[in-house]
Amino acid sequence: MTRRARLLLPALVLLGCSSLPTTRQPPPRPTQRGQALPQQLCVAPIRISVTKDEERKESDLATITASDKVAAELQRWIDASGAFTAVRVANGEPGETALSEAWRHREHLLLEASLNNLSLSFEGHNGWWGPNLALWFLVMVPAWFVATEKYELTFTADWTLRSVDSGAILAEGQRHVRVPGTLREMDRGWQILGFLRPKNDADNWRKIAALFVESARAEAAAAITEDIVTRYVARAREPALSRRMQKTMALVVGASEYRDPQHAPSLPYAAADARVIGETLRRHLDLQDHHVRQLLDRNATKTRVSRALQDLALRTRKGDQLIIYFAGYGTQTAAGRALLTSDADPNGAGVLTLREMAALLQGIEGECIVLLDCSFEGHGRSLRGVDPAAESDARDLARLNRVATTIFAARAGDHLVTPEQVRASLFAFHVARGLSGEADHEHDGVLTPGELFRFVHENVVADAAFFGQQQRPIAAGLERGIALTLTPNKTRKSSTGSSKR
User: Fold this and answer.
1) Cβ distance 363 to 313 under 8 Å?
2) Total of domains in the chain
3) What are the residues facing 476 on neighbouring strands?
């Protein structure tokens, strides 16, 4: 070896060291946490896809990138931004969507992100390749330790920020990410003629992927965090964005079977009516499953109903809507009218008075509509209790009217009709029709309590007369501002008269 070659050898080895992708670190979290939005964010499981070419290379790039590690990196970067009070990665509970999980955790925002079209490619050689060829011919072995091969990992980072309350998309974006790096031949696995042009097999590509993915996760997290701060945080307090977070929730209770059948015999169709109302709300008001709390039969206990009422009332915010439907026995107590939940017994257990219901709903910030498919004086869906006061209708309606629009299936002295031909109460049958769009007299896709009550009252009175009974629904608070938005293309136009059977 000549003296010049001996001098060239260490210079090439030192100057040609690998230039591996550097992993960015998030900046320190701001010390003034009061600047954070009063919102909690949940990071959904990350979706990862590779190009067709990457699939053919069998590099396992998606697996090596690791969805859980991308989510953890996103959490780290977003938390460091100080934009939110808390950031959590979804656990991925079996049988539960990330949106439902975030709802259960009372979080406000759900971040859904994906890394798409991941691709690793050989981009050629750098300027050290020429001198390195000379080194290879002179000495051979050290040439494999000189970084001359340029590689690049590219992908698009797509993200969507969704309101957990309403399910609406609040912001979204896409960023193209490029992670370059320069490797030695030994970094990706030795090949005897790899210094000319690498012939990478699946094992080589996996080794290269392992060198790039940590930086790629950080670049994706940094890009998405920057977008969220720019596109959402900066305008989060705008009224238009706040309106998109408004939601409609429902509590649907149906008790056909009671714990003490001697005290409260089996009640036909009550649980089935509640199921129909719940399904109608999901379909025609486009409610998410977690927005409809359903308590049927043995689950419809006083404790569970009370807790659900309190929880939903606390979840409401200005502009939100809450719909409550109860089908089961009613009765008259010394404290006024009451609903009998499934654990009712002769000792007074399982009795939820309307006064208690009004108290549970007292803290509600949005609008509420209460639909009571029961009676109270021993007719139809009721058990006789103490003698009712003459003014019970007005008194109980006034009590609930402080917090909600209220519609009773029947007024005092009327019979609540549940004909075998319909296999449902007339009230539930026509409420379901009205909520499906038939009560939308204005044909504007918006259903007001007044429209719903007029439709239900007209049809219930007519059908009850057909069956030789008198049933007249009664309502209060119809002037409230609640307006239910019906799902487009599922709304049926208003019809007149009773429905066909």
Assistant:
1) yes
2) 2
3) 406
Residues 257 and 173 in one domain: no
**CATH classification of the domain holding 433:** 3.40.50.1460
Residues 307 and 317 sit within 8 Å (Cβ to Cβ): no
Residue 491 lies in a domain: no
Domain-embedded: residue 125: yes
Which tokens in the block code for residue 341? 């939940």
Q: 327 near 425, Cβ under 8 Å?
A: yes
Contact 382, 376 (CB under 8 A): yes
Distance CA 241, CA 258 (A): 45
Residue type, 91: N
Evaluate whether 59 touches 118 at the Cβ level (below 8 Å): no
Interval 470-495: pLDDT, tens: 999 999 988 877 888 887 755 444 33
Q: Cα–Cα distances in Å, from 70 out to 62, 63, 78, 194, 339?
A: 11, 11, 12, 32, 51
Whether residues 196 and 330 share a domain: the answer is no
pLDDT digits (tens, 9 = 90+) for 278-327: 999 999 998 888 899 999 999 999 999 999 999 998 899 888 999 999 99
The two most distant CA atoms of the chain are separated, in Å, by: 117
**pLDDT for 501:** 33
Please tell me whether residues 170 and 301 are part of one structural domain: no
Could you give the CA distance from residue 40 to residue 450 in angstroms, rounded to a whole number?
37
Residue 251 forms beta bridges with which residues? 293, 324
CA atoms of 387 and 88, how far apart (whole Å): 55
Please state, in angstroms and rounded to a whole number, the distance separating the CA atoms of residues 416 and 469.
Answer: 9
Q: Are residues 337 and 476 part of one domain? A: yes
Residue 93 domain boundaries: 3-240
User: Among 226-240, 354-368, 380-394, 417-431, where is mean pLDDT lowest?
Assistant: 380-394
User: What residues are paired with 183 via a beta bridge?
Assistant: 149
Strand (E) or helix (H) holding 114: strand 109-125
Whether the Cβ atoms of residue 420 and residue 385 lie closer than 8 Å to each other: no
User: pLDDT digits over 196-255, tens only?
Assistant: 667 888 988 999 999 999 999 999 999 999 999 999 998 888 888 888 899 999 999 999
CB 449 within 8 A of CB 477: yes
Give the DSSP H or E segment for 211: helix 202-231
DSSP string, 121-188: EEEEE-TTHHHHHHHHHHTSGGGGGS--EEEEEEEEEEEEEEETTT--EEEEEEEEEEEEEEE-HHHH
